[in-house]
Amino acid sequence: MNRIKLIFLLVFSVVVWHVEARAKQENDLQRVIKTCIKASDADEEFVKLTFDGKFQPSLEFKEYLFCFAREAGMVNLDNSMNNDVIEKMTAKILKDKRAAKEIRDDCDNTLYDPLNTVYYTFKCFITKIKEMSSAKKRRRRS
């Protein structure tokens, strides 16, 4: 009987730890979003539409994306994209490492300035993730 209690306690502890870790990640994400909206003066309502694939080519929005990417570790100290981090995040979203690598290769943009590099890289990633997610849903229905 003690062994069952110990196993239950261990499983319960892992679940609680996981829930707390997810809550911390969510809080960190919200903090980064708020910090970057304030720093860039981007439109908060438009920022919320980003993950629906709606991008605003304004300077404020590009500054927001750059701030977000830098805070999330997606931009290196030299302002180049950290494609390894982006690929890992994409793999987590899609639950598919091969697809994440394919997107990384398709979206590897290095442009004339860091703001545009981040903007067009994000735009490409979000578009490709949405396309792959839609394709997976269609395959499941078939």
TrEMBL record:
Keywords: Signal. SUPFAM superfamilies: Insect pheromone/odorant-binding proteins. GO terms for molecular function: odorant binding. Residues 1-21 form the signal peptide. The keyword Signal applies. Pfam families: PBP_GOBP. InterPro entries: PBP/GOBP (IPR006170), PBP_GOBP_sf (IPR036728). This is Uncharacterized protein. It comes from Phyllotreta striolata. The lineage of its organism: Eukaryota, Metazoa, Ecdysozoa, Arthropoda, Hexapoda.
